[in-house]
Amino acid sequence: MSFPAAAREALADSQLRRNLGHATATIRAKREHAVGEVEDWEALRDAGSAIKARVMATLPEQLERLEAAVTAAGGIVHWARDAAEANGIVADVAREHGARQVIKVKSLATDEIELNDALAGQGIEAIETDLAELINQLGHETSSHILVPAIHKNRAEIRALFERTIAQGEHLGWEATAIAEAARRHLREKFLTVPMAVSGANFAIAETGTICVVESEGNGRMCTTLPDVLVTVMGIEKILPEWRDLEVFLQLLPRSSTAERMNPYTSLWTGVREGDGPREFHLVLLDNGRTDVLADEVGRQALHCIRCSACLNVCPVYTRTGGHAYESVYPGPIGAILTPQLRGLDQAPTLPWASSLCGACYEVCPVKIDIPSVLIHLRARVVEEHKRRVSPEALAMAAMGRVFGSQQRYERAQKLKRLGRGPIANAALPGWSAMRDLPQVPAETFREWWRSRTPPPGRDPGP
Amino acid sequence: MRVALFITCFNDTLFPGTGRAVVELLERLGVEVEFPEAQTCCGQLHTNSGYAGDGDALVERFKRVFADNETVVSPSASCVAHLRGHGVEGVLELTEFLVDVLGVEDVGASYPHRVVYHSTCHSLRLLKIGDRPLRLLRAVRGIDLVELEGAGECCGFGGVFSVKNADTSMAMLSDKLRHVLDTGAEVCTSADNSCLMNIGGALRRQRTGVRTVHIAEVLAATE
Q: Are residues B204 and B120 in the same domain?
C-alpha cells in the first residue's frame, strides 16, 4: 500500500491517535529536559556524527578488525549478504544445538530479516522477551515504533491481550505492575530453560571485538548471560572503531531515546569466557542492502542512525499516522529515508514524500542526520527513475520550469492566471478543497503595482 | 541603504499586498527599494518536488538576476532558506534584515488587534530567525500578542506534501487550527504566506472569522 493510503486508514483510528499523541508528547517533553541538562550536547552530536562518518569511510577495514577481534576472543563470525543468508545461519546454529526454542533480545535487525517467521518455518519457536515485542508477538502485530514497538497500544488493550494469552484467563487488574508481572512470570521460565538466545547489537567495537546492547528491562541481560549459545545479528553499520567511542554514544543514545541520563542495563561482552555467560558466541554481520546505501553519497548518512527514535517522537507525520503506515520495521522520518534505500526505491516510492520537510527530525537527531536533505535527494532519485513515464505532475513541473525560466513567459502566465489557478492549483484541488478555500487570485500582481507607482514617492523623478 | 526586493513568484501572483507592505515599510524606514523585474522563482518548488535539475537552474537564474545587488530582502522565510541552502549569499528574510541590519525593533507600526504568531518551520529550523519576528511584533502599538500552543509544530503545508499526503496534512492542520482558535485571536500572522495560505484557507472554509496576515502587513500598518 502507498504511504498516503496507509496513512489515511491510520488517521481514522481515534484510539491510535489518542495513544500515540499522548505517548509521543510525554517522551518529547522528557527528551527535551534530558538533553537540556548536557552543556556540550551540540559538541557530542558533532562527535557522534564524525565517528559515524569515519566508520562509513573505513567500513571494510573496521569490519575486518572486528572479525579478527571477535575470533581472537573465541567468537565465531559469519557474513550474511541478505536476509535469507542471515536467517539460514541462525537456524543452522539452533539445529546444531538441538534448540527448538530461542529467546530474543529486542532487535530491529532480526525484525528486518523476519527471523521469527524464518525460524518458525524450520520448526524453531522464537520467543520475544522485550515486553513490547512480546505484546506484539502475542497480538500477532508488527512493531510501530523503533524504541516502543507497542506504542500504538494502551494499558487496557495490553491487559486484555495478556489475560487472553499468557495469563490464561486470570484477571490482572489495572495496575501496570500486575500486568507486567504476568509477562515476568511467563518469561522467567523461558530465561532459565531455553538453551539459545538471539540478540541484535547497538554497537560493536572493532578494536576489542566487544558487542554492546543497551536496554531498560533486564531481559537482554538475561538472554546474553543465561543460555549456552548466543547469536548476535547486527547490521554492518553498527560498528564503532574504538572502545573510547562508546563514551560519546552512551551519552547520546539514552538521552535521545528513553530520555534517561543512563539506561538501566548496558551489557558488553567480548567473545566467550570460561565459566561466565554463553559457552558459544556467534556474530552474524548483515548487509541486506546496506552496501547499496553506502554507495549513495547523500543517502549514506542514513546508516549513521543509532535507532534512538527521537525523530519519530517529534515528527508531525509519525505522531499522527503511527508506525504501521510506513510498512517497515523502520518507521518515521528515519524509516522514510532508510526503507526505500535498503529495499530499493521502487519498493517504497511514496515514502520520500511522507514528510512536510519541517526539519524537526534533523534538529533532534543525536548524530545529525540531515533527514530533510536526504528526503529531497531520494525524491529526485524517484523522479529520475520514473522519467520515462509521462505524468500530469511531470508535465506541470516541466511547464512551470519553462515559465520560471523567462520573465516574459512568467508575466504572460501571470496574466493568464495560470500560476494561481493553473496546473498546480488544479492538481492540488482535491486535497485542498476538502478542507480549505483556495485564495482568490488578485486582479493586480505585485509587479504590475510596482510599475504603476514608479517613480516612487519621495524619489526625484528627474528633469 | 539600498536593497533589492525578491518578492517570490508566490507573493507576486497571489499575495501582492504583502509586497506593497514590504515596500511601504522599508521606505518608511529610509531604505531605498529596487525591484529587478527579471526575477521569477527561487526553484524551491521544483527542488522539493524531486525536480532537482530545474530547481538548480532557477537558483542559478536567481544569482544572475541579483548579481549586482549586495543585499536582497524577501518576505518569505522558506524561499530565503532554499536559496541559502544552495549557497546563495546576501539574501535576508525581512525580519532578519530589520533586526540585524537596520537594528530596529520598533518600526513605528500600530495594529490594534489580537494577534497570534505562527513561527514557520523554515524560519524556525532552517533560517533560525528565533524571536526576531516576536520582538518586532511586541513593539507594535496597540497589538494584543498572544501565545500559540505547539508554536514550533508544522501547520501541515509542506508544499507538495499537502497535495500528495492530503490526509496527513489535514490532520496536522486541524491541530494547528485548534491551537489558533484557542487563543481567541482575530489575526494569525507569520513570516511566510505559504503557511498562511494553508492555515487561512481552512480558517475561511470554517467561517471562523479569523484572518491571516503576513507580518510585513502588520509591521507596515500605521494609525
A: yes
